[in-house]
Write the structure tokens for this entry.
Amino acid sequence: MTGMEIGLGSLAAILILIWLGMHVGIALSLVSFVGIWLLRGNADQAAGILSLAARESISSYLFGVVPLFVLMGLVVSRADIGRDTFDVANRIFRRVRGGLGMATVGANAVFAAITGISIASAAVFAKVAVPEMLRIGHTPRFATGVVAGSSVLGMLIPPSLLLILYGIIAEQSVGLLFIAGILPGILLAVAFCAGIWVMVRFWSGFTGVPVAPAPDTSARRGLLADSIGKLLPILALVTLVLGGIYGGIFTPTEAGAVGALGAIAIAVVKRRMGVRALWGVTLETGHITAAICFLIIAATMYSRMLALSGLPAAMTQWIIALDSGIYGFIFFYVLVLIVLGTILDSSSIMLITLPLALPVAGAMQIDLIWFGIITVLAVEIGLLTPPLGLSVYVIKGALDDPEIGLGDVFAGAAPFAVIMLFVLALIVAFPPIATGLL
């Protein structure tokens, strides 16, 4: 077999193994070992190459950012800060048409800036926002769709675990990726709010007809003090982490440590986390970090095998020879990501496609920071698309309501997937949306 045949065969083998239920890290490692064995004809040499790749893949100081941001996100999630954010956002948007949906988007945007995990947002707001939207008259489809759509902000608004993963694989600055994610994240949140207003105004059969909120009889001064008390710690944590990175005070890894400590301090002051809960969060952080590091090791092995096969170089030459231009390549790349999103999770898609796409992007002199924002946004659309749509399954599991079916959540998320496609097209057409702050 030629190197090209082995490389193409490895792609098919990985997709088949994952579809059959094998863990993506094991599938990548196994296929990488067999591929190098076939290329070199020596199992010992294949094991040595992969062992070296494993040692090199996570030896960087940068990898400390993963457990620290995971810890910060989990502490914030367990401390009910998402509910506080939603309460404040609801007070701001309560008299706007579709205000409760907009409050969910706004709260998710703020929550995303301190967690970076879409699944955490989906789980928190499924329990907090969906019952409130159902109570005032929204349909289950619309209520769950708003939560599913806005949850993806967690992977675009910094800090984002997917941006960290992309930065590691593409060898790009995580800090620059965080800066590049700000404007696209804000644009997507605004687009969601505009879409909610339009749907509530012109598509009442889908959204339901919400009942006007009852007048708030609480004292305004006490209400304002309560809102400030709930929002101030959140804004302080966001300013501490992101302000420190953008201001050059500390690196993303150091920002993760400061953010984790700040989140723990807020949880303790609010008396929402004891020693036992903190220990449980620490253990969960270890489990998640180990899983992420295993995926990164497997992806490094896979990249090494593909490089030896010559497939990335051959694909680069072939795509350049097609003369489809940068936008032609981006179109087909995004199409592949969205199609893979129907059967694979976000990290798996990036681990499989980036080793092939990055050499092509580099050869075409594409800005890899802009390319990273496009990649993350396109991959996130897969969180809302059947049959795998991970955020949809998380929302369904968190609600545990037999009257709300999986099809209802997918149907509710569909308009938000369309809005994401629109925003993605804007970012592709106008790169400064992502690079303007750099």
Observations:
- DSSP finds 22 helices and no strands in the chain.
- The mean pLDDT is 81.
